[in-house]
Every structure is written in C-alpha cells, then in structure tokens.
Amino acid sequence: MSWWVSLISYLSVFSAVPAIWLGRKQQGLLWYYAWASFLSDIIPFVQRRLSGSVWYVQGNLFYLCELILVGLFFIREIPSRLWRRVVLGVIVLIAAFFLVRAWPHINTEVNWPDVVFGSFALMLLCIAALFKVIRNVEHLKIEQSPLFVFSACFLLYVAYSLLLMLFTEQFKQAPKSLRLNIWSVHNVLNSLKNLAIARVFTMRRKAALS
C-alpha cells in the first residue's frame, strides 16, 4: 500500500471528529450522522489492527443509519406536508426491506446490493434540496447556505458510493492495487462530506451570533 493511500485512509477514519466537536452543542440529525460515520470507520479500523479481521454488522447498521438520518434531514426541507409523509413512508419501507434482507448475514457481509435502493433515494432527495437552494438563494450567496454546502458534498459522496454498489462484483474481482485506488477516492469524498458537516455547524453558529 502506497503512503498516500494510507494517509487518505487515516484522514477518512478521523474526518468526522471536527463535525462531532463543532456540533456538540447544536447536535441534531447531522451530528448523530457524524457520530454514525465516525463509529463505522473507527470500529473496523481498530479491529483490523487488533485481530486482523472485521465485523460487518457496523457496515450494515451504518447504511441503515445513513438512510434514516440523512433522509429525515432532507425530508424536513420538503415544503408539502403530504410529500413529506410520502417520502418518509418510502424511506421506512426501504429501511425495513434492507434490514430484513441483511439480517440473516448481518455480521458476515455487508448487504451491498440492497444499499443501492437507499443510496438512490438519498441522491434524489439531495438533488431536490439543491434545486430548492438554487431557487431560493441568490447565486452570489449560494455558498453561504448550509443546505447547499452539505447537499453538494453529500451528492458527490453518495453518487460515487452508488456507482461502487452497482459494480460490486467487478470491484471485488479487480486487482488489489486497483481496489485500493478506487476506494481511496471514496475515502476522499467521505472526508469531504464529513468536513462539510463541520462547515454546516460553523455556519449555523455564526448565523446564531449575528
């Protein structure tokens, strides 16, 4: 493993720490999601160094938490009460479907094929949130919108993750060096997404003080 792959891996594991620290007083859905992201990264990181193997339960639980927490975050941005209920129902159904399918092998493998459904739903919600920001915020001030900052970074992360899920079998059969390089891109986007959450908390704190 090259040094830069190792460096990116380490940075990705701890990239949620700033968000956890900066959001400790505000908390909320993104703060809990940052915790879920950190735990899903640090637990296998420690396991590999202690025993050389990992439990897959945290991977399955993370994708379930991601679907619910991020889904609820975006649902709050939907203006129509009816559509909020409809989207919430879809999220609940996808989560239940994922849990039922993953449960028989929850600690032996990550249920990659069914992660696709949740990732696709979150990607659609993310795009809808970006359209909302573009409609309601002046373009010169769009970077000052916490919703835009998180949605833009999360869209990159979830779109790349979705691509990996769709080509899971090809990814598994690729040479190890190629798999490490491909996953390093995922780690970069994971870090960007977690740092975006930290940025959101910073922007919210400044807004509250102004």
Q: Please state the overall shape, judged from the principal axes of the Cα atoms.
A: globular
The CATH topology assignment is Rhopdopsin 7-helix transmembrane proteins
Strand content: under 5%
- SS elements, strand count: 0
CATH architecture annotation: Up-down Bundle
Largest sheet: none
Mean pLDDT: 87
- Could you spell the SSE succession in H and E letters? HHHHHHHHH
Query: What is the rounded Rg?
Result: 17 Å
CATH class: Mainly Alpha
Low-confidence stretches: none
Write structural notes for this entry.
By secondary structure, this protein is an all-alpha fold. The protein has one domain: Rhopdopsin 7-helix transmembrane proteins (Up-down Bundle), CATH 1.20.1070. The chain contains nine helices and no strands. It has helices spanning 3-13, 17-22, 29-50, 57-75, 81-102, 112-136, 146-166, 168-173, 176-209. α4 packs antiparallel against α5 (81-102), α5 (81-102) packs antiparallel against α6 (112-136) and α7 (146-166) packs antiparallel against α9. The protein starts with a helix and ends with a helix.
Name a few traits of the molecule.
210 residues; mainly alpha; Rhopdopsin 7-helix transmembrane proteins; 9 helices; globular
How are the SSEs ordered, and which strands pair?
Blueprint: H1 3-13, H2 17-22, H3 29-50, H4 57-75, H5 81-102, H6 112-136, H7 146-166, H8 168-173, H9 176-209
Helix pairs in contact: 1-9, 3-4, 4-5, 4-6, 5-6, 6-7, 7-9
Task: Give a summary of the structure in a few sentences.
The protein is an all-alpha fold and 210 residues long. It has helices at 3-13, 17-22, 29-50, 57-75, 81-102, 112-136, 146-166, 168-173, 176-209.
